[in-house]
UniProtKB/TrEMBL annotation:
It comes from SAR324 cluster bacterium. Residues 9-102 form the Sulphur oxidation protein SoxZ domain. It holds the Pfam family SoxZ. This is Thiosulfate oxidation carrier complex protein SoxZ. Coiled coil: none annotated. InterPro entries: Ig-like_fold (IPR013783), Ig_E-set (IPR014756), SoxZ (IPR030995), SoxZ_dom (IPR014880).
Length: 108
């Protein structure tokens, strides 16, 4: 499988105490294990099953995903910016594969 592409829309700066909106999308087929290929063989289940956002070593958002999520899942969430730091976005796939990206946030 090709390594998924992760896209993130997040501000680079925010006022202290303000609400920050994060949008992230990962390109992933989210195979449910219910479809068949051209030869009639079942395509094994392979989904993103967990998403985490860690901000300065503190988890600010967590989501558990299941088969009903569409391909290329988009996740949008908010949190309150209290200090400058690093956002780490972490996607966990069936089979143990993990995809990660980071963004910096400067709090004024």
């Amino acid at each position: 499988m090709v390594t998924p592409t992760i896209r993130v829309k997040s501000p680079t700066e925010a006022k202290r105490g303000s609400v920050v909106e994060i949008m992230t999308l990962i390109s992933h087929p989210m195979d449910t294990g219910l479809r068949k290929d051209k030869e009639g063989k079942v395509i094994p289940r392979n989904i993103i099953n967990k998403f985490l956002c860690v901000y300065n070593d503190e988890m600010v958002f967590k989501a558990e995903l299941h088969e009903a999520i569409s391909a290329n899942p988009l996740i949008q969430f908010n949190f309150v910016a209290e200090q400058s730091g690093t956002l780490e976005l972490i996607w966990h796939e069936d089979g143990g594969q993990v995809y990660t990206t980071t963004r910096e946030l400067r709090v004024l």
